Amino acid sequence: MANIVMICSIDILERLYALKLLENAPKWWWVNAGSFEVMLSCVLVQNSKWENVQKTLHALRKNGILPIFSGDFETDYHDEEQNYRAICNIAALSQDVLSSYIFGLQNQKAQRLILLAQNLLQDFESYTSMTHNLTKEWLLAQKGLGLESADCVLNYMCKREVMVVDRYTYKLLCALGIEIPDYDELQSFFMRGVEENIHRAYALYGEANLAYIYARFHAKIVEFGKRKYDPKILIN
User: Fold this and answer.
1) Are 193 and 10 in contact, with CB atoms under 8 Å apart?
2) I need a surface site. Which of 2, 37, 87, 145 has the fewest CB within 10 A?
3) What is the pLDDT of residue 74?
4) pTM more than 0.90
């Protein structure tokens, strides 16, 4: 294994920040962050391309099942009524109807989305209640949601202080000489480095909340990986 060249995730964040990878991205990176679309997308993207997720979301909006948000949804504002209605719409659809809007693994995903929406309505009285009270344990008990998906929901939909880690995160750290295959340990490495050096994170983002910093950190790693940058530029 290569020599360890970094021991703290805050070093990685600072170097990624300097690359300005998210200059033209939405505030929270995830389009319509804070909305029910995040949870839908997490189920839809399983074993599918992101382009297919976008096609499905477009079809659901076009047919009035999902709302078309106007203005800047990237603030901390949640449209309670529109999001709750969208969940009700999904829960009330038949599997055949919902599958007709889905691109890839239609029947399986339609079944899972309908059950997910029904469980949300059964266990939470409002959309705000969902964003405040959803737990990782509850999410992992739902078919179609795994560790990464659950954390995506908690961070990008509920705006909680949770950092998503994924294959881009793992590959980047390996390239820097640190291999942490366990999801929870990998997540702990990245979150601990930020929290123990929060003054350095605030130097980049001002007094932004930690949930936002984690959202941007994860997004920078994904964009870095997609653009196939040489990880060595983070240590030179």
Assistant:
1) yes
2) 2
3) 52
4) yes
What is the spatial distance between Cα 123 and Cα 135, in angstroms, rounded to a whole number? Answer: 12
CA dist 85 → 77, 92, 121, 143 (Å): 16, 11, 10, 22
Interatomic CA distance for residues 114 and 154, integer angstroms: 20
**Tokens 């990880």 belong to which residue?**
231
- 190-229 pLDDT, tens digit each: 999 999 999 999 999 998 899 999 999 999 999 999 998 8
Q: 146: closest CA among 210, 104, 154?
A: 154
Cite the DSSP H helix spans in 93-165. 95-99, 106-123, 127-133, 136-140, 147-152
Distances from the Cα of 200 to the Cα of 88, 156, 207, angstroms: 43, 23, 11
Alpha-carbon Rg for the chain, nearest whole angstrom, is 18
What is the CA 100 to chain-centroid distance, rounded? 25
CB neighbour list of residue 119: distance below 8 Å, 6 or more residues apart: 142
Nearest Cα to Cα of residue 35 among 130, 111, 147, 114: 130
- Evaluate whether 28 touches 34 at the Cβ level (below 8 Å): yes
Angle (CA) 70 71 77, round 5°: 100
Q: Which helix (H) or strand (E) holds 220?
A: helix 210-226
User: Are the C-beta atoms of 40 and 89 separated by less than 8 Å?
Assistant: no
